[in-house]
């Protein structure tokens, strides 16, 4: 059984953060462990409260898990503060793991999940040791310092982020203005890139899509898929999770983590290498 880890915030509503990650890990048949950076009192309507973990206790959780398990791949989500990021980066740089970073900054309801001064710590300490970075467009703008209004800007921003040392940047298209498609553009450190294109689903039930996508990438990397295969399979997982809603809650409902297994992974992602 391949062991993976999520380092993220807990979502009491069950749709994002640690809870979305563990559900994804379970469905993808990897063993999930957790390091909790913050508790959030949250539901599909928004985040009502945040209770951060102390950096010392983040370290204690990392030490407990790594001293007992052989963790193959790690993902990070809500990291909250520069102090927490520094503890995690210092610890993980001594470990031989594939690291997927979902640079969670703002919840769907608009609440901040990362302090402003923490962005520099993320760029300077975590990106140099990361395998994959999965920003949405607003997050890519903050990390790269480039306003993204067209494809050229996106490429420039991706190359700026690759310069921090991460091996692959996936620009997620959930927030883009495309009417019929949801396109994620993948940029690799060797200068190549490709797009993953799926049908855009018109739904408000997209709480935790980013968490679910990055947890799926982490699971497939731990299972030994190549970077490209892991990315395409993760896109299928999140597509099926959005396409088959559970209709839970009164706001932005969670996605359906059961769907990939129920539909036997049946979804054709279009891969464009041009
Ligand atoms: N309406 C949609 N239809 C199809 N795919 C979508 C839709 N919205 C998002 N996705 C896909 O979900 C994945 C996550 O992208 P998204 O841009 O939503 O991330 P995010 O904004 O970081 O999510 P979160 O707000 O949960 O952190 C991507 O693969 C994206 O293409
Ligand atoms: C603990 C935690 N982590 C991540 C998200 C982002 O998810 P979303 O943007 O869908 O609200 C969240 N809301 N809560």
From TrEMBL:
Pathway it works in: Cofactor biosynthesis; thiamine diphosphate biosynthesis; 4-amino-2-methyl-5-diphosphomethylpyrimidine from 5-amino-1-(5-phospho-D-ribosyl)imidazole: step 2/3; Cofactor biosynthesis; thiamine diphosphate biosynthesis; 4-amino-2-methyl-5-diphosphomethylpyrimidine from 5-amino-1-(5-phospho-D-ribosyl)imidazole: step 3/3
InterPro entries per UniProt: HMP/HMP-P_kinase_dom, PM/HMP-P_kinase-1, Ribokinase-like
GO cellular component: cytosol
Catalytic activity: 4-amino-5-hydroxymethyl-2-methylpyrimidine + ATP = 4-amino-2-methyl-5-(phosphooxymethyl)pyrimidine + ADP + H(+); 4-amino-2-methyl-5-(phosphooxymethyl)pyrimidine + ATP = 4-amino-2-methyl-5-(diphosphooxymethyl)pyrimidine + ADP
EC supergroup of this enzyme: transferase
UniProt GO BP: thiamine biosynthetic process
The entry's keywords: ATP-binding, Kinase, Nucleotide-binding, Thiamine biosynthesis, Transferase
Source organism: Lysinibacillus halotolerans
Stretches assigned to the Pyridoxamine kinase/Phosphomethylpyrimidine kinase domain: 11-256
Protein name, as recorded: Hydroxymethylpyrimidine/phosphomethylpyrimidine kinase
């Amino acid at each position: 059984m391949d062991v993976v880890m999520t380092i993220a915030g807990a979502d009491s509503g069950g749709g994002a953060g640690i809870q979305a990650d563990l559900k994804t890990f379970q469905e993808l048949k990897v063993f999930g462990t957790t390091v909790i950076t913050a508790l959030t009192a949250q539901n599909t309507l928004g985040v009502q409260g945040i209770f951060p973990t102390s950096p010392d206790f983040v370290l204690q959780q990392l030490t407990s898990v790594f001293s007992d398990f052989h963790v193959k791949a790690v993902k990070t989500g809500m990291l909250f503060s520069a102090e927490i990021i520094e503890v995690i980066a210092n610890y993980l740089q001594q470990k031989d793991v594939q690291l997927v970073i979902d640079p969670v900054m703002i919840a769907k309801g608009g609440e901040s999940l990362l302090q402003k001064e923490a962005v520099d710590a993320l760029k300077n300490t975590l990106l140099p040791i990361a395998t994959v970075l999965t920003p949405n467009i607003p997050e890519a703008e903050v990390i790269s310092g480039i306003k993204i209004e067209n494809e050229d800007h996106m490429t420039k921003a991706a190359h700026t982020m690759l310069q921090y040392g991460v091996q692959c940047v996936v620009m997620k298209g959930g927030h883009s203005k495309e009417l019929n498609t949801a396109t994620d553009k993948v940029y690799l450190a060797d200068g190549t890139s490709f797009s993953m294109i799926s049908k855009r689903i018109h739904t408000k039930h997209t709480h935790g899509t980013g968490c679910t996508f990055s947890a799926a990438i982490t699971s497939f990397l731990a299972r030994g898929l190549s970077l490209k295969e892991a990315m395409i399979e993760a896109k299928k997982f999140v597509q099926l999770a959005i396409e088959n809603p559970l209709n839970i809650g009164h706001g932005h409902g969670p996605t359906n983590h059961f769907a990939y297994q129920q539909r036997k992974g049946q979804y054709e992602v279009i891969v464009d290498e041009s």
